[in-house]
Each structure stands twice: as structure tokens, then as C-alpha cells.
Amino acid sequence: MCGNHSHHEHSHIHLPSSMVTRRSALRIGGIGIGAALLAACSKSNESAPTTSLTEATTTTTSTVVSTSAVISTLAGFEYFADSVKVVNNGNLWLVESNGLPAHNMMVGITSWQQQVPTSQPYTGTNAWQIPTNPVIADTPVSAKTQLYRGAIALAVNGVPIFNALNNRGDDAYLVGELDEWGGHAGRADDYHYHIAPLHLQEIVGNQSPIAYALDGYAIYGETEPDGSAVATLDEFNGHEMADGSYHYHGTRTYPYINGGLRGVVSVVEDQIDPQLRHRFEFLGRISEKEKADFLSSVAIYIAPNTGGESFGIVLLEAMATGTPVVASDLEAFSRVLDHGKAGITFENENSADLARVVSDLLANPSQRAELSAQGKSRAAEFDWSVVAQRIVDVYESVRVPGVKVEPDLTGQMIGRLGRGRITPESRSD
Questions:
Q1: Mean pLDDT across the stretch 225-231?
Q2: pLDDT of 343-355, one tens digit each?
Q3: What residues form DSSP beta bridges with 183?
């Protein structure tokens, strides 16, 4: 998914004066009942876009659990103190929220599955982390060729901001995936922006940031803090001031928000680390091809099922791609894994044991390689061509005097159709 994406011609794209877009105007007559219901799920005391076709009229309440530390006043967040809490632990600002804005959501989208935004647990140890004293990096991280997953900034209303490019490398705004506020709910029902929430400048004023990049540097709106015009911006949508300080700006042209991280950050698996709940990505319904590609891309497949399994075909799918398997010690799973030869089991419903097994396996590449090889070999025993021949053998065996057919594991794979293995015992009629 890497590249320079020059085909987008971002520099020539100009947004309307508000986040109500041409798409919104075309969409308003046909958003349907689903979109109407989604719009009714949000609180509405943020200022609406100046030309909004859909005024926020509903209200909900939010609950935020704060830490016991002294609440700070990091500039911009104080305007949302009823739903966003900020504390300072010395090296970091810890920002807590439920991730939901006070405006309507999911209205105006033309190319995105209609998810239902839900409250997120951005509290306690899962709070967003913003460096107290950001430092310019020797090697900045560009958002044009990476960071397609996870947040890169946090708006002062507590809503995370993702790369303007989606996980396919396309401009999420231009392809119609965003609502009139520049956001949408991901497949985990987490709402986030993909472009600058410029409407927040109307609330916080020129002097306060509308967001903070996860490297710690502030993101201002369309003017400088003193109200003057924005000076020339670098490729990250930021610039250095006369006093030596650095900050970003939100713009109506690509990259819309910080075009990467000019400050020091940790990047793990193409995401800024930590990503809180966004370490987990719910894929939803995917094709068989996508499933195979996904399984082959992960380090470990975990099956934490607690019961009711008569077979483990999901394990075989992972094993066939060479992915090491960790599964609960259900009888069916243990049999598929050849009792530990083709995968590792942990004590059912024992999270500590699961954590131990996964940690040990991640730290042992040679063991993962061995399990990968053993898993592929084991999965081959259940290939449909092999199973089909065994079924034929079963039917042929019933004509052989003195032969008994006993059920075995592969019989469960085909829905308990009575196939089994042939043993030299007297057949009972």
C-alpha cells in the first residue's frame, strides 16, 4: 500500500467553507432510515457547520471515568471539560474520553458501510498519551506512505484523528467515506476523523489548538494563534515559529491534518504506539481469499473458544496457511492439534495461562516455525481430496466381511456423516 499517491492530485482539491460537502447535498434526499437512526445517536452541543443541511437536534449524555490525578488544563481541552479529562503524570498528558463527539454522525457518507458509533473506553490505563515535552525527530514519519492504520492525532473534543488516507492508501474524503464532519465509525464502531475538525476553531478560538498530534505538537486551525494568516507549511502541514517552537495546522487541502509526525514517536506495525483499543481491528465479513491472506499475515492464530465445539475447522484454516495456532484445551481442538504436536493449547477460560502461552510463543521464533510446519502437515490430512477418498473407502468397507467401521475425527469434519476408519475387527450389522 505504499507509494507517493500522486494520482490523487491533493493539492488541487478545495473543500467548501464547511464540512457539509457536495456529497452531503447530493445525499440528503436518500440517506434512508438507517442513516437517520445513526444521526439520532449523538449529542449535539458542538457548533454546526455554517451551511449545514442537517442541524444537530438530539441529546445524549456521556460518562467518563477520570483518574485520581490532578486535572490539568492543556490548551483547548478545557472547552470540553464535561466529557474530556486531561491529567499530567510528568512525561505525558493522559486524555480520557468516550470517543464520541457532540455533533451528529454518519450523515452524508456515500461510500462506507453504515456502522453505529459507540462509546469507547478511553479511560484509565487506556487513556490517550500525548508527550508533555515533544522533541523534533531526526527522521520524521510521513503519513503519505505509511501510518494508514490507527490514530495519528487527537481532537480536543476527545475524538481520535486517523490518517487522511484510508488503509488502502486512498483519500478517505475524496472517495466519499466521511460524513459532513469529516469522520466515520470504523468496523469496531469507533468514531474518528480523517480530516481536520476545523469546526472546533469556532469553539476554542484562534489562540487554542483544535487537536494534538500524538508526537505532542499542537494542531491549530486555519489561522495562527494571534489570528494572522498561516505562514508556509512544510510537508507535514506544520512550521517552526520565530521563537523556535513548532506546530501543525488543519487545512482544507490535503493532507488536511498533520501529514505525519514531525516529532519523536514509536511506530509498531505501521501504527503510532500505543493505539489503545485500536490495537484490535474487527474485520467483519470477508471473502475466503481475504481470510487466507489475513491468516497468513499474522504471527499467531488464537482460538479462545470456551465450549460447544465438535470440531476445529477454523484451526485447520489457520494451520493450512502456516500460521501457528494457540487454542483452548477443548477435546475437539486438542484432537485437531494432534494433542500438542501441531499447535499449543492453554487451560480453557484461564486468561493468565493464555497470556503465558502467547508471550512464550512470541518470544520463540524457532518454535513458531516448527508449529507452522507441523500445522501445515496436519491440515493436509483434512484436505477435501483426502477426506473424499476416505468416504469412498467407508462405503466400500461395508461390503467386506469381518471389517468394522469405527468413527474418527475426520468424520466430524464433514458433519458427522458416519465415515470412519477401517479396522480389522468383526463388523456388526
A1: 95
A2: 999 999 898 899 8
A3: 193
User: What's the rounded Cα separation, in Å, for the pair 74 and 66?
Assistant: 15
Q: How many CB atoms lie within 10 A of CB 317?
A: 17
Give the whole-angstrom CA distance, residue 217 versus residue 238: 9
Q: Assess contact for 160 and 128: CB atoms under 8 A.
A: yes
Please tell me the predicted confidence (pLDDT) of residue 68. Answer: 37
Report how many helices (DSSP H) and strands (DSSP E) the chain contains, helices first.
Answer: 10, 20
Please name each of the domains of the chain with its CATH number. 1-283 (no CATH), 288-380 (3.40.50.2000), 384-423 (no CATH)
C-alpha cell belonging to residue 308: 460447544
Closest CA to 178 of 157, 163, 156, 188: 163
Cell numbers representing residue 316 in the block: 485447520
Is there a contact between 342 and 377 (Cβ–Cβ < 8 Å)?
yes
pLDDT tens for 59-113 read: 333 333 333 344 447 999 999 999 999 999 889 999 999 999 999 999 999 987 7
Give this prediction's pTM. 0.56
Q: What is the C-alpha separation between 104 and 59, in angstroms, rounded? A: 10
Q: From the CB of residue 226, how many other CB atoms can be counted at a distance below 10 Å? A: 7
The whole-number average pLDDT for the span 210-219 is 98
pLDDT in tens, 113-147: 778 899 998 988 889 999 999 999 999 999 999 99
Express each pLDDT in 26-57 by its tens digit: 222 222 222 222 323 333 357 544 323 233 33
Q: Contact at 8 Å (CB) between 87 and 73?
A: no
d(CA 15, CA 221): 15
What does the pLDDT average to over 216-238?
Answer: 97
- φ, ψ of residue 184 in degrees (nearest 5): -165, 170
Q: What does the buried/exposed string (b/e) look like for 176-214 if buried means 16 or more CB atoms within 10 Å of the residue's CB?
A: bbbbbbbbbbbeeebbbbbbbbbbbbebbeeebbbbbbb
With beta carbons less than 8 A apart as the criterion, state whether 318 and 295 touch: yes
- Classify strands 211-213 and 151-155 as parallel, antiparallel or unpaired: antiparallel
Bridge partners, 90 (sequence order): none
Q: What is the C-alpha separation between 286 and 428, in angstroms, rounded?
A: 46
**Cα gap 146→263, rounded to integer Å:** 16
Residue type, 165: L
In the numeric block, which cell numbers belong to residue 394? Answer: 467407508
Residue with cell 449535539: 44
